[in-house]
Amino acid sequence: MKKIKGLVASMIIASVIIGGLGFRWGYEYDLKLEDTNVGGIITIQQDPNPVED
Amino acid sequence: MVKRLGPGEKIRRLRLAMGLTQDDLTNDELSKSIVSMIESNKRNLTWNTARIIADCLNVYYEGIGKKITAEYLMETEEEEAKRIIKEDLDHLQKAINNGNVDEQLVENTFEKIIGLINEWGLQKEKAELQIIRGDFYYRGYRYNEALKEYLDVLDYSLQTQDHSTVGRMYSSIGNVYQMQMAIDSALVHYLKAYDTARVHQPEDKEKRKAFSVYNQILCYRKLKRYDLALSHISMFNDLEWNDPQYKTLADKILLLEGNTYRDINNFDKALKIYGKILNDEKKLDKETLFLLFDNFGELYLQKREPKEALLYIKKAVSLKHDVNVNYVPGLYLKEAKCYNLLEEYDVVSSLLENGLRLAEKVAKQEFIIEMHFSFVDLYVRTHDFDTALVHLETIEKLMADKDINIYKYDLYSFYCDVYLGLGEKEKVSKYLSKIRKNYLTN
Question: What is the span of the domain harbouring residue B387?
């Protein structure tokens, strides 16, 4: 019984830690996405011309 | 209708041109009466007789450096017309390929040949002429005129089931659409070119597939579908086509791969790929080398390192006379962006002027609009809002004329900047409301 309680407690703590990290990563990731969607220097694509016969 | 010479009349004129009598053409195998009947079309010319007469005439003609062949004597009027058309088309093609041809002279030659073709109703020759004319217009940036020629030839080749030409025309039509930034239409045609090669298996099927995949990659990059660009780069590398042209395209494919990694901000991988291409610098053709330096420059611009970027851009500038002039506006724009980051604004303005003039000359739509936006950016920064407004109005008109919507939000956002500077708050609100949705108001 003590072992089961200990296991359950460890699982709860682990879930909270992982959940917290995931939230933080997601929050930062979303912010970064917002940052890069607009603004910045426009890329000047200079690719080769289409190939002709 | 111009009268062509039949065999009999031809022989008579050749003989008289050398001051010969009918007796001069006779020998053990050929009598004077036969010669007379042939010349007056009372008797058909046979191959054997044509050879004998040609040999007799050559006794005199070779002395003036000419040779009469039996084929020439046997030629019917239609065959003669076809021969003349073929010779004219070959000369025209060579002149166009050499470059620096007088446009009006080429147009006049086209008209002359078309006259002869229509006289005889020679559809196959007409299609050959239209391909040459289409390519001529395409290289002269006359895209609508090129499209008309290619569409006519496509029609004819579909009717005659000439699958090799069908594939070629789909490819050329795709190129016209791509150069006009109608990317969806371009892709449709490149895919049709690929399918034609896959289904009908013409002789040039490997080349057609390679061209199609290569041109599709360019389209996916323009649409910023970098995932599709990379998957098609893999597809290209898996193609089997034993031709020297494959190696040239393969170098460019590697460049496109580098460009794609750069555009998804994987600068390390992009630099690695560019470095790999640069290792073989001596084996690269000038166009690929130019584009490599140009794109190196772009990578350093993206990293906000204008001095490093300028080093590579200057190398590209040194090659600008060796490449297609339609690459040069982009180079001017990059150089302008470098000097802008270095805050040397007087240089920026003259670079943009030169770039815009050239972009207009080569009908490079995306650069014309980007040049104008760059001017707007410059004039907003230097508080010359009236001049910025002129450029914005030009952009708006261009977008409406060419039905280009991808720059809509940049346009509205710059209008806001300009009207803010001019103190016209109502107009600022008007453009802000175009950029966002309304939540409470209608």
Answer: 324-442
